[in-house]
């Protein structure tokens, strides 16, 4: 699904983008609007320009449904992962919540401007406040 506004200044989607999606064996591309700042003539007849689009998938489902327009919908199979049939492990990267200097008695929220002034040699981070330090004035909440 491509969410884009008619007449957008980025000229999205480009013809090249849609061509690559079709070459990657997408059966249908759903666009919220034509976009591209002009009449898009390279949207293929199998594609859908539909305004509001929703995608629904139930837990452990083998299919998902794309609803669009005035009650139209398509149901598609969920493709099995490649490479041995096992789903790839999903890694969630989270930023540490707190930061402090080993030479200070205070800790900060990790996004506090004061953290930028801590030398890399002294900087420590964590998801919980260090027990031996006090919150600085930039700490929004403590646990």
Rg measurement, Å: 24 Å
Beta-strand portion reads 15-25%
What is the spatial order of strands in the main beta sheet? 8-6-7-9
Q: Runs with pLDDT <50, length 5+? A: none
Shape descriptor reads elongated
On the 0 to 100 scale, the average pLDDT is 78
In terms of quaternary structure, the protein is: single chain
User: What kind of sheet is the major sheet?
Assistant: 4 strands, mixed
The end-to-end span amounts to 40 Å
The count of DSSP E runs of length 2 or more, i.e. the number of strands, is: 9
Structural class: mainly beta
How do the SSEs run, as a string of H and E? HEEEEEEEEE
What does the model show?
A hairpin with a 3-residue loop joins strand 4 (63-68) and strand 5. Strands 8-6-7-9 form a four-stranded mixed sheet, with no helix packed on it. A three-stranded antiparallel sheet has the order 3-4-5, with no helix packed on it. The chain has one helix at 15-23; strands at residues 30-31, 48-49, 53-56, 63-68, 72-77, 98-101, 106-109, 123-126, 134-135. The mean pLDDT is 78. The longest helix is centred in the N-terminal third of the chain and has 9 residues, at 15-23. Helices cover 6% and strands 24% of the residues.
